[in-house]
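Homework help board

Subject: predicted structure for assignment chain

Our instructor gave us this sequence and asked us to write out the predicted structure in token form, then describe one feature. I got the tokens but I'm not sure how to describe them. Can anyone check?
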Amino acid sequence: MTRLSVATWNINSVRLRAGLVKRFVEEHRPDVVCLQEIKCRDGEFPSAIFAEMGLPHLHIRGQKGWHGVAIASRLPLESVEEPNFCRHGEARVAAVRVAGVTIHNLYVPAGGDEPDTAINPKFDHKLSFLDRMEAHYRARNAADPLVVVGDLNVAPGEHDVWGHKQLLNVVSHTPVETEALGRIIAAGDLVDLGRVAVPASEKLFSWWSYRSPDWTKNDRGRRLDHIWANRAFAPCFVPETFVIHKSARAWEKPSDHVPVVAAFEV
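My token output:
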């Protein structure tokens, strides 16, 4: 068997931060890097830089100025049908098969500021996206190896946020969102690998706001970035390989998210 290492990172503009991706790849050697919020069209993606860092195989779903997801790999990528989660047709889903494993790279809408669908269409869009995820994963062939990664923009557990009670009415941790994520996991018989590797009683964050005056001091983070596997493939996960690379948040001109990595025996 060989080990397949998969990283997910909301890079918040791949052209601006390609150098940070290069540094991360050189230091940690992931086999597959799934990026969200690349903020460029397909032809504007810095493909040459990714080839230089040993990730020549690319699957890009770009969009002018906003959103966008991409998968970069050391190994060849096979095309697969991409699920239609976004009712507005935005570039938020990329899907491939690599080393016999289907990977879904997702960028779930953030949902705006008000957790009320009656006054906030962005929140309504987010809930629609999550509903479509639930329907898709319920209907999917449970025997087909699957890894779901990305910025899901939901911190589901009490210790996936810096202050559970303080954030219950804040978008990303409201009960309607966390319950939707729970339904998706149950419908698809999916496993949250972060909480296989790290007990649910421990704080675990992957995002720290740019608005925080000193994010290192107050550590007011949220776990918005996830790696899941379906039950058929989850036994291949190597728990000790799960890492949230918090140090990347302190790099020069960083994303507000950091890379999350997990590896599998395939």
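Reply (TA_rk): Your tokens look well-formed. For the description, you could write something like this. The chain has one domain: 3-265. That's the kind of observation they're looking for.
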